[in-house]
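This follows on from our talk about sequence and fold. I would like you to pick a protein and set down its sequence and fold. Go ahead and set the record down below:
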Amino acid sequence: MVHIGDLPEDLLLHLLSLVPGRDLIRNCRLVCSQWRDLVDVPTVWRRKCQWEGFLPRGQDRSVPNWKMFYFLCLKKRNLIKNPAAEAGLKHWVTIVHKDDEWNIKDLPGVDGREFPLPHVQKCFVTPLYWRSTKEQYIDLRKEGYWAELMDETKPDIVVKDWYIARYASGCRYTLTVQLLAENSMILETFEVPKEVIRQWNDAEWHEITHTFHNYPSGVRYIHFKHGSRGAKFRLNRYGVCVTNSGVTIGPEMAPRVGKETAPLTSSVLFGALGSNLEALTGRSAGFIPDNA
C-alpha cells in the first residue's frame, strides 16, 4: 500500500490543490510539517483558482496573495438580502411619512421600460410626496468576513444600485452607504450627490456604482440606505423605482471558465492513501472561523 510519505512532492502538491480550501486549512495543514509547508505554498492556491475559475480581471493580473484571493472569490456574493423585491419588503427597514408606504411593481412597469438584466422581474416603488427610504445593516462577521480578514486584506467593497423615475414625475433619488466600526462609528461614507430628476425626464434605468478602496481598519458593518423625495404631489405612487441593489466584497474576477471537476475532499484523499484523517490530524484547525 502506498504511504503518503512515499508520494513525490509534485504529485502531492497536485492532489492537495484539488481538495476544497476549507479542508486544506482545517485538516490537511495539520497532518505534518511537510503538508503544512505545501498547503502554504502559493502554487497550491493558484492552481485551485485556475481549476475553479477564479481569475483576476483586467490587464494587471498580479495577485499578491493567492490563498486570500481564493477565499475572497469563494465567498463573493451579494450581501443585500432581497435586492429585487422578489420577497416583497422582507429584510428591509422602511422609513415613510404617515400613511405612505413602499410598493412592489412587476417589470416592465415604469412607462414600459425594460430592465437591462432579464432575471430582474420586480422593483420597489417609493411614495412620491414625502421623503421615503429603506435600509439594511450588514453584519460582516455573520456573513463570514472575520476581523483579521477585513483589517489586514481590506478587500474592495463594491456598491451598486439601479433607479428610474416616471416620465411625467419629477423627484429626487438618494443613496447613502456607510462603513461602520464595532461601536457604530462611521469610518467612511459614499453618498450620491443631489440627484434631481426633472419632470418629463428620459425615464431610463440608471446604474449607480461605487468601490470602497483602502478604507480604515475596523469595518464591521455596512449600512445601505436609498430612496427618494418627490418634487410634485401625486395621488399614486410615482416616486423613484429602485431594484437590483448590491453590496459585494472581494476582487474583481474574470468570467468563470474553470474546469468541471468533482471535488476531492480530504477524507477521500486520506482514504485513497490508506490513512486515517482523525489519527493524522487529531483535531480540527481554527484558522478559518466556522461561519467562513
In short: The chain is about 20% helix and 25% strand. The chain has two domains: 4-75+263-281, 93-249.
